[in-house]
Write a structure and sequence with these properties.
about 220 residues; alpha/beta; Rossmann fold; Arc Repressor Mutant, subunit A; seven-stranded mixed β-sheet; 7 strands; WalR-like
């Protein structure tokens, strides 16, 4: 007899509401398999969920992320990191620190749903599918032509990070960081860092503080 499997209850977490909302839209075709219970930006998960999906856009990566704190402060049974950075050491560190999964943003939405179901069933899942950084979700500045990585770097500039700090946070080389800065500045029409910070403040690049019930909060 087939096992009766209820949908996985998921919370989405990132400091930027636009990132969380973009991720939520990816799951809309899979409402029979994934219930989005809570969407959080800089707030602990309040409702009981099976999996907390932590999007690393402009966030600490696995080597710095407070994974035990994410588990301890909220109602999540398991934490899964969702990242562009697919290095072996990051995935290994995430699992060592208590994560139940480390998933690439290069995954299709269907594969992401499958991975969350496997995590909920008790597996530890790692996926390192290659990605060009711009295939999935949403981010601040997308409607101004910024790529996801350009937006991430600009978000960290807006937060006051220096180039070497940005390189450490994003796992990019310092030369890659400088390249993203040049291309981002060109697209937004600035040529100095203070101008970029002001532009970022005016266009949604400061972290949000919000907690919203997901569409399936009462399911």
């Amino acid at each position: 007899m087939a096992q009766d499997r209820r949908p996985v209850r998921v919370a989405l977490v990132n400091d930027y509401e636009i990132v969380v909302q973009g991720l939520a839209r990816m799951f809309e075709p899979f409402r029979d398999r994934v219930h989005l219970v809570e969407l959080d930006s800089r707030m602990p998960v309040e409702r009981s969920v099976d999996v907390l999906l932590y999007d690393t856009f402009a966030q600490d990566q696995a080597d710095r992320a407070a994974i035990p704190d994410l588990l301890a402060r909220g109602g999540a049974e398991k934490v899964v990191l969702y990242s562009w950075n697919t290095q072996d050491d990051l995935a290994r560190t995430a699992l060592e620190r208590g994560a139940s999964g480390y998933l690439s943003k290069g995954m299709s939405a269907a594969d992401l749903v499958d991975a969350l179901e496997r995590v909920h069933a008790g597996e530890r899942v790692v996926d390192r599918t290659a990605t060009d950084d711009d295939d999935t979700g949403d981010w601040p500045g997308r409607d101004h032509g910024l790529s996801a990585r350009e937006a991430e770097v600009l978000a960290l500039i807006t937060q006051g990070l220096r180039n070497d700090d940005i390189a450490a946070r994003t796992y990019l080389s310092i030369n890659s960081v400088k390249s993203y800065i040049r291309s981002a500045y060109r697209k937004i029409g600035v040529d100095r860092r203070p101008q970029a910070v002001l532009w970022g403040v005016r266009h949604g690049f400061e972290p949000d503080v919000a907690r919203h019930p997901g569409p399936d909060a009462d399911a």
